Structure formats: structure tokens, C-alpha cells
Amino acid sequence: MKFTRYIYSVLIILCINTLSYADDGFAISIKLQDNKDELFYLARYYGEQVYMVDTSYTNKPGQANFAGDAKLQAGIYILVSADKTKLLEFIVDQDQHFEIKLLSTAGQALFDIKGNHQNSLFFEHIQLNNALAETAAKLKELTDIHEDDEQLAVLINKRDSLIGSNASFKKKLISDFPDYLLTKIIQAMEDVKIPDSLDKNTNMAYLYYKDNFWKTVDLGDERLLNTPLLPRKIRNYFDQLVPPFADSIIYSIDHLIELTGNNKETRDYLIWHFTSEYQNPKIMGLDKVFVHLADEYFAKLEIANTSESVRTKILERADQLRYLLIGAKAPDLRLVDTTGQFVSFQQIEEQYIVLFFWDFDCGICKKDLLVLKDLYQSNEYNFEVYAIGTNADMEGWKKYIRENGLDWVNVNGTRSITENFHDLYDIYGTPVIYVLDNKKNIIAKRISADQLKLVFENDSKLR
Q1: Strand 86-92 and strand 97-105: pairing?
Q2: Which listed residue, 13, 51, 316, 395, has the most CB atoms within 10 A of its CB?
Q3: Alpha-carbon distance 241 to 323, whole Å?
Q4: Tens-digit pLDDT profile for residues 438-463
């Protein structure tokens, strides 16, 4: 089942000439001096995706006018060309009647903005950062070739001056305009500064960085959803700071959702984001996260973009997965063997049991069979195979077993006195492998046959 993913993208710049300054709605005019297009699009970010908002067609080259009776959602917007190329990014917040002109002088972009103080600051900030980046690049180039000490000194002074100007700009912005979206973005972009006292203690430095990662991000402000910032922060946090274990991820998700406070829009965005992320996880065992999200949020709260039928499907999926989580007792199977007797894997007493769902007409299954058979006959590990054939052609199944010398426990899933194996073990294709310990608990699942050695060895070390 596919769940809606919420995504967003970048920043836009607006240029405006003629505006009707009304109390409601929006009126944005953009003028690009060196642009000859007459068709433009207005787009915005949401999560990691860009959504089209409006279209402008004039008979004036480089002129885009966007207007509407209802206010736009606050966020970062993009001016897009007719060929879907991003031209400019800008901020839409409370003041939505403004104009921006982009002028070009000797290769430099100059902005003339009227009616929007926040965008004036936004472009000033961009120009400061661009100047700093350019100076740093030149400084690195000269440093690498170890030449021109005098020019190096000039560039170092310029860099330090720009760093100071940038710091002063941010300090004044936060002090004078704390509610601006630009302020919230710049604060959220600030990296955690680790105290010098922790420099030599890697573990404490990591914990400090992790504990303070979200301190400057206002997750109660839904405007950040309409910027590319929040998804990037989430990805960095979970990829770099949260261990890839279900319980650690669940703790971090719950903490993040708690930080949204009473902001339902951000809360629901996060719930859907993580539901999408962990409905089909790439790492074994992380489906526990999906079950947690279903139990703690979809079962208890009203979540945006969730019809009753969608909610039911999510909860049903969680109910199916909860019995297949790592550590869970494997659901029993009583299936017919090649002699017509019903056999359960509960009778097997080896240290490990490999449940192997396969089809004798499946090419990939045959490759896994060869690996599994070699490992089985090596007697290197104490395990038994309970191989579940999924093809209803009983004679074809028996013939393949005989011809290939598969002398482990062979049963056919289409002849059962327990529940349907497809539902019990979430089998929608073959081959599928589950590994059980001697207590019939699931210790690994959905792995390939050549990963079995690693499972056996790692489990033995943990005992």
C-alpha cells in the first residue's frame, strides 16, 4: 500500500511593478531585467516537493504578475520559467502585496524590493552569504598554491569582516524581528556549537550535539513546512544521530512530535512523513516503527488526510505486522508434507529454524536453494529448514524436491490446517526467508540465503 508522501523544495524571488494594495489576498509582481519570457509559474515548497500555485502570462518580457483573493500560505516560493526552470526564490509571510525587481549590473544581481521589508532582509542575507562563500573560495585557492601572502592577508581580513557582518545581521534580525519566517529559518539553520570542554570526549560531544539539535527549530511553527529546511533537518538527524534500531527511532520520533506542541499541522506532517518512511523499511526490524505509529497516533488521533478507509488499512497492516516483528513468536504453520501428513515446525528442535517460502518455477528461488542446500549439507550450523512450497502443483513440487535432493522438511503451503500462510507471514512474492531460534521466536526475516551465516554467527555472539 502506498501512503501519501509530503515533500518540498527551494526559495524564490519576486519582482513587482503594479500592485493594488488590498487588505486580503495577494499581489506579487516580479520583473527580471534580462529575461525575455512572458509566461511564468509561481510554486511553493511543502516537505520535499514543489507545488504549482499560480500562472502569469503577460505581453511584457521578463514581467510576472500573480494575484488572488485569498492569502497564500506562508513559506518559501519559487518563480519558475515556462520550461520549468527555477529562476528565483522569495519569502511569502504576512505582507503579501509587494514587488521585486532583479537588475543586472556587470554580472552582479541587484534587487529593488518595495512593500516587503522581510524580503529586503532575505536578499541582503543571501548577498552576504554569497560574498562570504566567494571570498572563502578565493582564500582556499591561494592557500593551496602557497602564493601571494599580501593578497592572502587582504582576503583573510575581508572574510573575517564578512563573518562579523553576518553575525551582526543575524543578531539584529533575531532581536528586532523574532516572528519573521526568515528569522525562524536562520535560527533553525544554526549548527550546534559544542563546548570546548567536550572536544576530547567524543561520546559526550555526540550526546550534547544530539540533545541540542532541535533547540533552535520552532516545530510549533507550521510555516517551516513550506520551506526545504525541515525535511533536510529531519533527514540529517535520523541518518547521522539516531542509531538505526527500532526503539531508538521510536523514541526520537515521539520526542519530535512532542516538540510540535499544539500545532496539529506540523504534528500530522511528521506522523505521515514517518509512516511513509517506515511502511516498507530498508533495514530489517524497523517495521516496528510503523506499528508504533499506527498504535499511538492513527488509532488515537484525528490525522489530516486520513479518511476512515485509509485509517482502517493502516491499522489492519499494523495488526498483520505486529505478529512478525523481530522477537515475536512465529505464527504456527501446519502444512502437508510430501507423504500427505500435516507437519508443524514446532516439532523441530534444532538451534535455528529457517522458514523458506519458495516456488519451484521461481528463478530467484532456485539460486537461493543452491546456497541454502550447500550451507545445510555443510553441517557448519545447527539448523533445520522448513521449506514451504507456494505452488499448488503438488506433483511438480514433489518432482523438483526429488530431483534436487532437498532432504529437509518439505511442506506445501496450499494444503493447510492453519491460517493462510500469505496472511500469516505477509508473503506476496518468493523467495522469503524467516529465521527462528529454538524458542520459535523470529530473529531475522526477509533476508537472502547468503546472509544466513551472518545471522547465525551474530546471534551466537549475543547469547
Answers
A1: unpaired
A2: 13
A3: 29
A4: 999 999 999 999 999 999 999 877 66
